[in-house]
Design brief:
The protein has 279 residues and is α/β, with parallel strands linked by helices. It is 30% helix and 17% strand. Helix 8 links the parallel strand 4 and strand 5. It is globular.
Amino acid sequence: MNILLLASMNVLQLAAATANMDILEIAYGGSLQKVRSEQADVKDLTLDAVQVSVDLPAPANMDSAVHSYRHFVYGEVLPSSFAAMLQYIGAKESDRYYDLGAGDGKTAGVAWSLGLHAVGIELIERRFNASCGAVSALREALREPAHAAVGHSGSLRMVHGSFLHVDWSDADIVFVASVTFNDALMGELAARARHLRRGAKIVSWHAFPGPEFRSLGDGVVHMQTSWQAWDDEPPLPFSLQEKVTEPAPARERPHALAGTGEEFTASDMADCALYTTSP
């Protein structure tokens, strides 16, 4: 576990976080720390999926969709590096965390391991199914007597859908690996982020545009990623921002923003849910 993370935790927190990360490693079949990158295959996409992902007119065919919409490229942040980042920005137990474009769900799992209420939102069905497989394995691992005494104050949920259609306005922390996102998509994200509470934190490759968001500290946080060529390369800088205004009025919400309609409870932990939302 990262030295920065170790230094910022008391004995009980460290014991619980270490045990939970060990369980996550089991849930991911020993590959939790093996980050990867990929482009979505044509079979992973539909024209409707491409359209709803950016709220723009759909491309004429799938060839142009895969070529033009680079938003489906997938990369991961090293989980131990991500855990250290959460501690660095002051994440607290019971904070609400969202990963927009969660892929296999690893960052949501790490957030859960630290006691947060974590949600991963993923549009590509194959990636969502992989995250659900990990959630199922995690549920089974938690039933083992050896893990029965491990403390879990957070919850974990994976949602299948577009982060433009699922309501994440109750977030305390938002993460989005927006490396390949264009200005139009970042603008759509910012429009939804205006409904976050004052003080919510946003970690993103590209900064969210608008006066509602201010750089926090020196404006960056560094993490190791799957798209770095060598393990010994220095961590890469992600934008770190804070929401500095009150939530925008409900009447100003984008038309596609739909709530999940449920509150988190202890029974939600390691539950995988499928949400269907309409524009």
